[in-house]
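tool_call: predict_structure(chain=1)
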Amino acid sequence: MHYYLTILKEGRLLYTYFEDGQYKSNDMTSKAPSCLFEECRLCEDCTLRDILLLLRKHIDAFSRVLGRDCERTVIDAFSNESSNTLGQNIIYLRLFWNTVKDFYWQDDIQTEETELTGTRFPDFDALGTNGECWSIASTDPNCLLDIPVKLQSKLTIDDNTSSISKVIEFDHCEFSLGHILCGVINELNWYKRAESRAK
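tool_result:
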């Protein structure tokens, strides 16, 4: 790949490209909403705070794409003091593709046709200090702000169409800026939904 985006500290967005035999870069923070379909990476020490800061800089534009709960999730993440201690047990947050080959269901009837699920946006969870995976769907985003976020580039596709469980693996899979933002907001929105139901 001769060009890609990188989310940097403080919610900055850098565009790196190859030209005249060398890599060059431009700050694309002000144009982030127009870059949703470009390949995107995270800087080594990127945290959830950095991703949400990028969202906050263009919250009106991103809310139109990511849904009405996007703005409320971002605002609450920076305004609430959380007493949740889950963040103390997390090494990093992880975006990954949870893809499955399965039989296609039509009108509640399983057909012989197959489908691939899990391709709309990546899943977002956490890796604990003992190597365990944590769901963060019901966690206040405020207590996760300063935890590093990693992209799991390895892609696995589980095959549920065979009696013998098969897995197809790829060493590298791209993420676009849109994938990253949508995966994060989709998971964090579950906290707002749970909070609304509790009221």
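agent: DSSP finds four helices and twelve strands in the chain. Proceeding to next step.
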